Amino acid sequence: MRKNKNIYPFFNKDLFHDACGAGFIVTLSGKPESRVLPLAIKGLKRLAHRGAISADKETGDGAGILTDIPKLFFREILQEELGINIPKRKKFSVGMVFTTSREIKWLKNTVNKHAKFRGFTVVAFRNVKVNSKVLGQYAQSKQPLIVQFFLSENRINNHSLEARLYLFRKVIEKDIINQKKKSYICSLSSKTIVYKGLMTSAQLDHFYQDLTHEKYVVKLAVFHERFSTNTQSTWSMAQPFRMIAHNGEINTIKGNRLWMKARERVIKSRFWKDDLEFLKPITNNKGSDSESFDHVLEFLVRSGRSLFSSMMMMIPDPYEYDQFIPKSLKDFYIYNENFMEPWDGPAAMIFTDGDYVAAKMDRNGLRPLRYTTTKDGLVIMASEAGIIDVAHKNLDVHHHMRAGEIFAVSLKGKGILHNHNLKRIVAGENSFSDSLGKYLSTISRKSSKKEFEQFGLPKEGFDKRLRIAFGWTKEDLTRYLIPMAESGREPIGSMGDDTPSAVISKQDRRFYDYFKQSFAQVTNPPIDSIRERGVMALFKYLGSENNLLDMRPTFSGAIRIESPILSPNEVQKLYSLKKKYPYKRIYCHCEINNSCEKHISKIKKQSREAVANGAKIIFLTDENLQEGLLPLPMPLVVSAVHHNLVENKLRSRVSLICLSGDIV
User: Fold this and answer.
1) Tell me: the pLDDT tens digits for 264-299?
2) Among residues 429, 447, 481, which one ends one of the domains?
3) Cα three-residue angle 352-357-359, rounded to 5 degrees
4) Measured CA distances, 465 to 117, 485, 555, 663 (Å)
5) Within this chain, do residues 220 and 357 fall inside the same structural domain, yes or no?
6) Which of 20, 186, 588, 590 is catalytic?
7) Is 20 annotated in the active site?
8) Which of 141, 421, 464, 475 has the CA that lies 20 to 30 A from 548?
9) Strand pairing report for 15-16 and 287-288
10) Which CATH number goes with the domain that contains 462?
C-alpha cells in the first residue's frame, strides 16, 4: 500500500497568505543620503508588532528591505573583497540569490552561459557577508547560501536594460524549474536590490552586514515585516518582492492566476517577439498572493506598459457611482476591465520600478497607509503612524490615504505626483473614449415585468416531474421559493445549519450541498454591494478579451450587463446580437443509465470547437428536458468547461453563460 507523505491533508505548503506592515522612506531631492537606510531600519523595527514569531521564539515570519543600488559601496566592496575594479562610468547590475552549497557551481555555470548569449558579461560572484548567530533555530536550519552576481552590458539593443535583465532572470528561472533546483533570485536589476529573509525586523541589519556599512548610502528604502496567516513561512516568501511590498490579501487570487494562465495564448508582443515564450508562465499557482501580483505587475511594466497604468488596471478605483470622476478616467477603467479582471481584496500596496516609488490603496481602503513629508526633504510612508519621529517644526504634510488613492515620488528629484494629477496623466495616455463609443454594447435592465414576464405560468401548467429532476424539494418550495415570490424578499432563517453534511446525509441532497464556498482567510469587515454601494458593483462584461500587451486602444467589442444574474429578456437580447457576438448553445442533458463522465467530455470538446469557430459566448443549458434525460449538475458542467478552456488557453476568448432549472 502506498504511503501518503502528506500528514496534513488540509494544508498546502505551496499556498501562502500574509498580513503585514510595510513602508518606505525616500529623499525628495533624488540624491542618496546617509540617513535614509538607518531611518528605514528603525521604522521597520517599529513595525515588529505587525510580524509573527515561531515556536522557537526567535524565528520571524519574514522581514526585508529594498533599496536603490549603492554603486559606490559595491565598487569599494568588490575592490576590497575580490580585487575587481569597476570604473565609475561603467554601468553594472546586481543579482541577489538564495541558493545552496550543492547548487552554487551549477548556478554560476548557468548564469555565465545565458549571460554570454543575452549580451551580458559576468563581472563577479560574491558571497554576501551574514551573521547566522542572530537567527532563530528554525531559520538557521533553512538558511540558504546567499550570493550576489554582478553583470555589465557588452551588447546594447532596443530594449531597456531593466527589460533585458527581466528576460535574463526568467530564462534562468526556467532552468531552475525544469531541472528542479532550489535557487531563488530575490532581485536582478540595475536600479534596485532586495535584502530579505526568514527573520524578524530586529534581526535584519544584524544578519546582513552590508546594511550597516557606512558606504551603503541610498535615496530609497522600502521595508516590510511579514505576518503569515494560516500558511508556512520561508526565506523566499519574505518581502519586499522585486517591485512590491504588500499589506493585505488578494481575495480573488485563484481566479487571477487562472485568468493569467488562460490568456497566455492570446498574448502577443511586438516588444518581446519570440522571446515572449521565455516569460511564460507569467505567474504560477505556488507562492503567495503578493508574489503572484508582483509577477504580473513586473510582466506588464517590463513589457512596455507604464508603472501607474498597470497598477491602476490591477487595482482599479470604484467609479460606477462617482459623480465627480472625469469621463476620460472612467473610460480608462471601463476599457481596461475588458483586458484584466481586478485583483481585489484589502490591499495597501507599495511599489517601485527604480524610477518612482509609489503607494496605492484598494477600492475599499481596508488597509491603512499614511505618509509624511518633511521640510528637510524626506517622504515617509508606512502602514502605521509614528514609525519615525518627526519634529513638529520639521513637519510639512501628514496625510492618511483614502480608498483608491495613489501617490508617487520621483527617484530622479522631480517631486511628488498626487492622486488626481497622476490619474489624469494616465487617463490621457490614450483615447479610450473613442474606442468604447464605437465598440461597447450595453444591455440595460428595464422593469421587472418586462424582464421576467416570459416566466408566466403556462396554461397547461408545469410538469411536476421537472421539479424532481432539478432537485427541488417540498421544503425548498414552501420555505424559500414561495415566500420569495409572494413578498419579493429574501427568506428569513436562523443562523447556523444543524443538518448533517451532504456526504454523510441519509437524504438525497442536491449537488450544491456537497461544496462550501472558500472565503478570505483574513477576517475583514462584512461588506456587500448593498451596504457598500459606493465602492462595489455587480456589472460584468461578455465577449472575448483582446491582447493584454497592445499599447494602443484595440478594443473590438464587448457587452456590458448590469448583473451576473440574467433575466429571460436579457438572454433574448444576447441572442439578437449573434452577428456581432457569435454564440453556441450546448445542451447539458444525459441519458438515464449513460456515463456522465463521457457526456461531460463531449461538452468540453463542443466548447473547444465553438471557440475555435469564433464563438464569443457559450450558453450551457439544460432547457427542453425530455423524458429519458436528466440534467447534468450545472456547477459540474461549468467547472469542467471553464478549467478545460483554461488548460487549453482558450478561456479568455469566450464568455460562459449557464441556463439552468436549478437556479433561482
Assistant:
1) 888 989 899 999 999 999 998 888 899 999 999 999
2) 429
3) 95
4) 69, 21, 47, 16
5) yes
6) 20
7) yes
8) 421
9) parallel
10) 3.20.20.70
